[in-house]
């Protein structure tokens, strides 16, 4: 986590950037909203990640909690979450605003081990960041604990799937259905299309049928049968067809690049991902 002094220093520096305050980077391409999960830039700190997003021409971001949380574990991290000054999150929002990037969602992964205070604090952080969506690599059972806070703060929570076919983890359509059963209408889906394919499911069909409950998409390419992440276009994920569903139905759901495959320079690889996605809509 950046210190308060460093926050103030970098905010002053950002005001001198070439892009004027409020000048927005374009998010839309041929009717599809392109963005990024900032986890793609996990090899650098927040300021460097924002600079990289600008270089890549990315105007919409779902921010990974690792770009604001300190490198702590267990009780120390739990204590930080419940005591950190929320002004620091407001300062983070200003950084994105000054860069012309829309901070669309905050990735804060509620787990069974979270205290109620930690759960509620995630919503307070989201409010301070000025976002109306939280994405979460959560447990299925935790949705019931999250639900009343989602109602209280009127913030949608998109449950993120992986390919782990294990009890109480999100991987199957049935896992999403179970989390949304008897809970708040604010409990939603953050569909990772690469993981969905690796687990044996069809993201095109799921998106077509359930888009009203999907708050964000993670765009990555993976092989079927728990196969590896690959450069875009080399796996089995129907990226083109997913983007066409967004385009045809005029959906505002961000298609967020999540760069996870083994590559070279992060910025160069994210640019390749962006260009591949654009080419699918040519």
What characteristics describe this protein?
282 residues, alpha/beta, TIM Barrel, 8-stranded parallel barrel, two-stranded antiparallel sheet, 11 helices, globular
**What top-tier CATH class fits best?**
Alpha Beta
Please state roughly what percent of the residues sit in beta strands, choosing from under 5%, 5-15%, 15-25%, 25-35%, 35-45% or over 45%.
Answer: 15-25%
* Pattern of helices and strands: HEEHEHHEHEHEHEHHEEEHEH
CATH topology name, in short, is TIM Barrel
Helix content: 40-55%
Enumerate how many helices there are, as a single number. Answer: 11
Explain what the structure shows.
This protein is of the alpha/beta class. It has a single domain, classed as TIM Barrel, CATH 3.20.20.150. It has 11 helices and 11 strands. The strands form 2 sheets. The chain has an 8-stranded parallel beta barrel, surrounded by 7 helices. A two-stranded antiparallel sheet has the order 9-10. Helix 2 packs parallel to helix 11 and helix 4 runs parallel beside helix 5. The relative contact order is 0.14. The N terminus is likely disordered.
Q: What's the short version?
A:
41% of the residues lie in helices and 17% in strands. It has helices at residues 4-14, 46-56, 74-83, 87-99, 116-129, 143-153, 173-180, 193-198, 203-210, 239-248, 266-280; strands at 28-29, 32-37, 60-64, 102-107, 133-136, 156-160, 187-192, 214-219, 221-222, 229-230, 255-257. Mean pLDDT is 93; it is low at 1-19.
């Amino acid at each position: 986590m950046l210190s308060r002094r460093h926050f103030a220093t970098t905010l002053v520096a950002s005001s001198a950037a070439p892009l004027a305050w409020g000048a927005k980077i374009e998010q839309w391409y041929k009717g599809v909203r392109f963005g990024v999960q900032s986890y793609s830039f996990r090899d650098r700190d927040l300021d460097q990640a924002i600079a990289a997003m600008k270089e890549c021409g990315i105007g919409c971001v779902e921010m990974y909690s690792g770009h604001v949380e300190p490198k702590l574990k267990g009780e120390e991290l739990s204590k930080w979450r419940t005591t950190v000054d929320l002004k620091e999150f407001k300062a983070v929002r200003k950084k994105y605003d000054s860069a012309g990037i829309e901070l669309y969602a905050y990735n804060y992964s509620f787990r069974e081990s979270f205290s109620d205070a930690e759960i509620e604090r995630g919503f307070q952080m989201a409010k301070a960041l000025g976002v109306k969506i939280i994405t979460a690599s959560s447990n299925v059972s935790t949705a019931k604990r999250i639900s009343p806070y989602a109602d209280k703060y009127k913030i949608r929570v998109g449950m993120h799937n992986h390919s782990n076919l294990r009890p109480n983890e999100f991987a199957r359509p049935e896992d999403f259905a179970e989390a949304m059963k008897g809970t708040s209408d604010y409990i939603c889906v953050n569909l990772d299309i690469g993981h969905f394919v690796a687990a044996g499911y069809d993201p095109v069909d799921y998106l077509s049928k359930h888009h009203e409950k999907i708050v964000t998409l993670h765009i990555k390419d993976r092989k079927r049968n728990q196969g590896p992440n690959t450069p875009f276009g080399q796996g089995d994920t129907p990226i083109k067809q997913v983007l066409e569903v967004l385009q045809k139905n005029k959906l505002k759901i961000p298609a967020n690049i999540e760069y996870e495959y083994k590559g070279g320079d992060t910025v160069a690889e994210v640019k390749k991902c962006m260009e591949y996605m654009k080419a699918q809509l040519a």
